[in-house]
Design brief:
This protein has 489 residues and is of the alpha/beta class. The protein has a domain of 74 residues. The protein has an eleven-stranded mixed β-sheet, with helices on both faces. Helix 11 crosses helix 13. It is globular. The relative contact order is 0.14. The protein binds glutamine (GLN). The site of glutamine has 13 residues, from loops.
Length: 489
């Protein structure tokens, strides 16, 4: 069997099941792609080839003996470098974690291993998941698979790029304000941010704990459902995880489904916002027309507090980050400054180990939590977060799914954002979903005249992955461009 670029894991599983290919052949194929492409694109930070091939051999043995762990046994999946995989490095693309080896598996890793899937390399990211371009990685700059002079998005840019480049057939990332959906759109792959709590965060290095969620990058909506089915579920190690008791999503997608009569909300504030590129607007209108043609009812909705979401996010996320990152003190993990005095070890290790953006966020977060400013910033931000959540609740009384662009512009070039705020605004369409805890998915929706991929975002209510996945699946089946394969592939 030939593994074509951007093959789905559903198809790989079918071929594995029919004995047309082995896990060793699959892993060798992706390892070859890694060798050919990674030196140019820098999607992967570290990889253990022997360990991957050993796992593949074990999987093939299980299959021969009729003891497969799941239909996906033997399929590789790339892992963002902020998820703990036992005995592997976990740097969060930060110098402060250089040399740190994770002593345990994150719950999602335990789950993918229990399904027989094989962790395949650690993907590059913005340091501690802070950024939208991977330019904040302390190690390398990942290049966009469609245009080497452009960013892949961030923070999970390495995960998105590895799937787009066929270095791996799927990847895991994390999304605090858009870090799965934005790079998915920039690289032309599917990116899913599940509802808050559906997936355990145990073993994910925390950035902003009330916003972080783990989710998949894949080549199809069905593949996202498959990976979500594998990684979801309540976990005693994460008290914010919930027992979703929801259907098997992949199975839901195999049943007949139509969106005739489905109410799709378009927030007027979002589509009339400043800075929205014309290419995005045109493509967005094409997506609306496609959905209309399939029988969906388009409803204009209002999000009165949406305009505050970026500001609210940068108060809440930085406050939480300043507390979460306090543990990196030069004593317990990774880098330690070569000095004797304890207070100097703390200060110098953090000074040397953290990059500029991380320091900026820690300072901002510490400031908004400090006495005298707490009420003015942090408490106010929490109140506005509730109002944003209520905007969604109101909207979902009159519509089933919300449609917006994923990003205000197509992928941008390196060093083109001259201020932090300019970079922060690239998540303007994704951030409010995390503040509300809802689920959303980025699906490729078009290609610009200069051959850059574009995406559209579907958002559904809390724990409404069923309707989210069904709607985006139908969209994917009917969109005019059938495959999104970058020129290098
Ligand atoms: N780009 C946003 C930030 O810099 C979101 C990052 C994320 O989702 N991890 O914080």
């Amino acid at each position: 069997m030939k593994i074509e670029p951007n093959i789905t894991i559903a198809k790989i599983a079918k071929n594995l099941g029919e004995g047309k290919i082995s896990s060793v052949e699959i892993c060798n194929h992706y390892l070859e792609n890694f060798t050919k492409k990674n030196s140019v694109f820098n999607a992967i930070l570290s990889i253990n080839k022997e360990k991957i091939l050993k796992s593949a051999e074990e999987s093939d043995k299980r299959r021969k003996e009729g003891k497969v762990l799941s239909s996906y046994d033997g399929i590789p999946i790339a892992i963002k470098d902020n998820l703990c995989v036992e005995d592997e490095p976990c740097t969060c693309a930060s110098k402060i974690l250089e040399g740190f080896i994770s002593p345990y598996d994150a719950t999602v890793i335990k789950k993918i291993k229990a399904a027989g899937m094989i962790p395949f390399g650690r993907t590059n990211m913005d340091e501690f998941a802070m950024g939208s371009s991977c330019e904040n990685s302390a190690y390398v700059k990942t290049r966009n698979p469609w245009d080497k002079d452009r960013v892949p998005g961030g923070s999970s840019g390495g995960s998105a790029a590895s799937v787009a480049l066929s270095i791996a057939p799927a990847a895991l990332g994390s999304d605090t304000g858009g870090s799965i959906r934005q790079p998915a759109a920039f690289c032309g792959v599917v990116g899913l941010k599940p509802s808050y709590g559906i997936v355990s965060r145990y073993g994910l290095v925390a950035f902003a704990s009330s916003l972080d969620q783990i989710g998949p990058f894949t080549n199809s909506v069905l593949d996202s459902a498959i990976v979500l089915d594998i990684i979801k579920g309540k976990d005693p190690m994460d008290c914010t995880s919930i027992d979703s008791k929801i259907a098997n999503f992949a199975e839901l997608l195999s049943q007949p489904y139509s969106i005739d009569g489905l109410r799709i909300g378009i927030p007027s504030e979002c589509i009339n916002c400043e800075g929205l590129d014309n290419v995005i607007k045109e493509n967005f209108n094409e997506s609306i027309n496609l959905l209309k043609g399939l029988g969906a009812k388009i409803i204009e909705i209002s999000f009165p507090h949406w305009k505050y979401s970026v500001s609210v996010y940068y108060v809440i996320a930085t406050a939480e980050a300043s507390a979460n990152l306090a543990r990196f003190d030069g004593i317990r993990y990774g880098l330690r400054a070569k000095t004797e005095k304890l207070s100097e070890i703390y200060l110098e290790s953090r000074g040397l180990g953290f990059g500029e953006e991380v320091k900026r966020r820690i300072l901002l977060g510490t400031f908004v939590l400090s006495s005298g400013y707490y009420d003015a910033y942090y408490r106010s931000a929490q109140k506005v977060r509730t109002l944003i959540r209520k905007d969604y609740d109101e909207a979902f009384k009159i519509c089933d799914v919300i449609l917006t662009p994923v990003t205000p512009t197509p992928p941008f070039t390196f060093n083109s954002k001259s201020t932090p705020l300019q970079m922060y605004l690239s998540d303007i369409f994704t951030i409010s979903v995390n503040l509300a805890g809802n689920c959303a998915i980025s699906v490729p929706s078009g290609i610009t005249s200069d051959n850059l991929p574009l995406g559209v975002q579907f958002t559904a209510g809390f724990m409404r992955e069923d309707i989210l996945l069904k709607t985006s699946h139908i969209f994917e089946l009917h969109r005019s461009i059938k495959s999104f394969i970058p020129p290098e592939n």
